[in-house]
Automatic annotation (TrEMBL):
Family: Belongs to the CobU/CobP family.
Stored Pfam families: CobU
Molecular-function annotations in GO: adenosylcobinamide kinase activity; cobinamide phosphate guanylyltransferase activity
Statement: the UniProt record of this protein carries the keyword rRNA processing: no
Species of origin: Steroidobacter flavus
Catalytic activity: adenosylcob(III)inamide phosphate + GTP + H(+) = adenosylcob(III)inamide-GDP + diphosphate; adenosylcob(III)inamide + ATP = adenosylcob(III)inamide phosphate + ADP + H(+); adenosylcob(III)inamide + GTP = adenosylcob(III)inamide phosphate + GDP + H(+)
Function: Catalyzes ATP-dependent phosphorylation of adenosylcobinamide and addition of GMP to adenosylcobinamide phosphate.
Protein name (record): Bifunctional adenosylcobalamin biosynthesis protein
Superkingdom, natural source: Bacteria
Keyword RNA-binding in record: no
Pathway assigned in UniProt: Cofactor biosynthesis; adenosylcobalamin biosynthesis; adenosylcobalamin from cob(II)yrinate a,c-diamide: step 6/7; Cofactor biosynthesis; adenosylcobalamin biosynthesis; adenosylcobalamin from cob(II)yrinate a,c-diamide: step 5/7
E.C. no: 2.7.1.156, 2.7.7.62
Record's keyword terms, sorted: ATP-binding, Cobalamin biosynthesis, GTP-binding, Kinase, Nucleotide-binding, Nucleotidyltransferase, Transferase
Length: 198
């Protein structure tokens, strides 16, 4: 999909997945990219936060993230019901979702049972499917931030193993649905899937 920026030049509009490990610099990369795209196109940015401030540590982390982004950006909090929260964002031309990992965790924990670790997760499955449908139809630039959690050891706890499995599957689905995928390692953005010419 294409639109024109302020200069009349063609500008790609699509779906971008920015993935990396903890403290890899993926959020900083996404914010810098959104700033650049916003300035070039003269469009608005909505930052969608999926974190929940359930304790002092998370409150501190959220405050640090808030300080990193421009005060002019609109912030939308959607720890759950992500797809339902997004349709009204067509007024923004760039949507940054930070992050897919916390959103998954919030939904997964609603249904996970220690005594049945491989049982279906209806809340998560419904959330995931609705979001993927929204993503396929979105007419805005979408920047998705997600964690790569599968490059370490297999966790000991059943809930952590299930989370790792679901995160890996989600990342594959997002990568397939996105036009561009960037892996961020030690603050360095490495493109692993690029926009197709056309």
């Amino acid at each position: 999909m294409v639109e024109h920026d302020k200069s009349g030049e063609r500008a790609s509009v699509g779906r971008r997945l920015i993935i990396g490990g903890a403290r890899s610099g993926k959020t900083a990369h996404a914010i810098a990219l959104a700033k650049s795209l916003s300035a070039a196109r003269g469009v608005n940015v909505t930052y969608v936060a999926t974190a929940q401030a359930l304790d002092q540590e998370m409150q501190h982390r959220i405050s640090l993230h808030r300080a990193e982004r421009p005060a002019t950006w609109r912030t939308l909090e959607a720890p759950t019901g992500l797809a339902q929260a997004l349709p009204g964002e067509e007024s923004s031309n760039i949507v940054v979702i930070d992050c897919m990992t916390l959103w998954l965790s919030n939904a997964l924990l609603q249904d996970f049972r220690e005594d049945a670790p491989t049982a279906p997760l209806p809340t998560w499955e419904a959330e995931r499917d609705k979001f993927l449908q929204w993503l396929s139809l979105a007419r805005v630039e979408v920047l998705l931030i997600s964690n790569e959690v599968g490059m370490g050891i297999v966790p000991l706890a059943p809930v952590a193993r299930r989370f790792q499995d679901e995160q890996g599957r989600l990342n594959q689905m997002l990568a397939a649905a996105c036009d561009q995928v960037t892996l961020v390692v030690a603050g360095i953005a490495v493109p692993i899937k690029s926009f197709r010419a056309g």
